[in-house]
Amino acid sequence: MKKIIALCFLMLQFGYGNNLEWSKTGHRTIGEVAQQHLSRKAKRAINSLLNGEGLALASNYADEIKADRSYAKFGPWHYVNFPADKKYTEVQPSGEGDIVKGIEKCIEIVKDKNSSAVDKKFYLKMLIHLIGDLHQPMHVGRLEDKGGNDIHLQWFGRGTNLHRLWDSNMIDDYGMSYMELANNLPRLNKSEIKNIQHGNLYDWVEESQDVANELYLSVEEGEKLGYAYSYKYWETVEQQLQKGGLRLAKVLNDLFS
């Protein structure tokens, strides 16, 4: 009973309760895409900090530590909510922090020459994960429905919600490993990659919110979804995974330049 109570406490502490954060496969895909686009200098620095651990393997660390209550303060870093008709910079940020403030803090600590190796490793792993979360559109969803968690749906006859649908259902049911996904994303030329990597963190969060607003219109409460929905929106899944990976590489290359 004590374990059940503790688990419920953790779910409440981390805001969105039963979300799964792009699923392990989604985060690893983003990590692998980023790994393939790192500069040599960034590869060396990251390899040293992570003791040889690749970005794909490190990508789920920020979810794994949720089992430890001492990390509860990092829960709000996984998402952000702001009105659909506003820009992130036009609203008062949460006092508990959010995904934008979390990413900025991670960059600050990893970049600081006075940070310990232990802190740099921890916040680098957090950064890898949070850039991934930023590109799961429902992590920039509406506050009133907990980023789609309160919009209940049926996925191939199984109960789910809009947040979980985009976190894990669509990716996991597609049946590919993270390596298969990463290696079968659309081939882009240098100009297309540069275009995706253009802009800053604030541009990217508002772009994700635009996608989230579209996804809210894509379903109705209680709707039964399956192949037709996956066929229509799988390209969006691929785009978000690819953008997340390429932008993560850009952030890391700049950080370790």
UniProtKB/TrEMBL annotation:
- Report the superkingdom from the record: Bacteria
Q: Where are the transmembrane segments?
A: none
Query: Would you tell me the protein name for this molecule?
Result: S1/P1 nuclease
In terms of InterPro entries, this protein maps to:
PLipase_C/P1_nuclease_dom_sf, S1/P1nuclease
Keywords for this protein: Disulfide bond, Endonuclease, Glycoprotein, Hydrolase, Metal-binding, Nuclease
SUPFAM superfamilies listed in its UniProt record: Phospholipase C/P1 nuclease (SSF48537)
Question: Is Glycoprotein found in the keyword set?
Answer: yes
Supply the source organism's classification. Answer: Bacteria, Pseudomonadati, Bacteroidota, Flavobacteriia, Flavobacteriales
Q: Which organism is it from?
A: Arenibacter arenosicollis
Per the record's keyword annotation, is Glycoprotein included, yes or no?
Answer: yes
Q: Which CDD domains does the record match to this protein?
A: S1-P1_nuclease
